[in-house]
Amino acid sequence: MRRLAALLLALGSAAPAPAVPLAEHPPLQALIDTLVSQDGFARADVERLLAGTQFHQSIIDAITRPAEKMPWHRYRPIFLTQQRIDGGVAFWNEHAALLARAEREHGVPASIITAIIGVETRYGAVTGRYRALDALTTLTIAGLPRSAFFGRELRELLLLGREERLDLAGLNGSYAGALGLPQFIPSSYRAYAVDFDQDGRRDLLGSPADAIGSVANYLRRHGWEAGQPITAAATATPAAASLGGTDPALKHTVSQLLAGGVSAPGAAPGTRKAALIRLEAEQGDEYHLGFQNFYAITRYNHSALYAMAVTQLAAAIGAQHPASP
């Protein structure tokens, strides 16, 4: 911890980010041992690759202050802009055949696929400024509550690089190590990416086709229900407000929520499971019922604010796109 504190202090200056001393960080030593003993990497190759990584305090700052901690009335305007809506319409027009095929094969609407890529990277315009190796190494040794998770993702990154023949030394991503147009973390890339353009590679970095197919596959694999609703606008009595929050887990049936003081004209009573989502608006709380498809979007990013931004951006794009029903 003293070495890490000294490292953080050094980062306060304008000096270049320091190289990570591998020998001083047991999590990295354990990771190297695993990559060698279980994954068949040559120790010298792994050490050479990780020895070139740098620690960035700005990564720690970013991950401890995510946008998803904002109130909804500040979060929503980041993504629901006319520029992003217009960009979504243009993306849909450019890739209409691919989006139609993804919707046909996976049941996920073209508007939702488009909106996720729009929220994540502005349709590929902003895919990340940190080297993925630097981001994941920084987070692995930072002593954060999720550092062990990021250590596992660092291992997944090296496995991904070998499988997909990626140049990891020059591969950029987000401050959390997410990659490509759809911002898949390495484990998700390995598990859910698809070769949608059928060129023999799963390329989320440069292939819009693979990004589109992979987003659709990800949502389907996480329980997307084709043709079913995502949300319904709702109101809640003071007594029912305690049933709501930002937890997207489907804890109640629609009938239970309606009986508890929730009103949702767009949701018929029944056994369909739902979450009562309460969001902090400028003029008081607003409520929505989130159904299974809303929950599926939160498997992409575990935030009700994120899923609502995707849902509303998709609706705004769809309203301006001529192919929408």
From TrEMBL:
Active site positions, chain numbering: 120
Entry keyword set: Signal
Any single GO BP term: peptidoglycan catabolic process
Molecular function (Gene Ontology), one example: peptidoglycan lytic transglycosylase activity
CDD domains: Slt35-like
Domain of life: Bacteria
Transglycosylase SLT domain residues: 28-314
Signal sequence, renumbered to the chain: 1-19
Keyword flag Signal: yes
Entry protein name: Transglycosylase SLT domain-containing protein
Organism: Immundisolibacter cernigliae
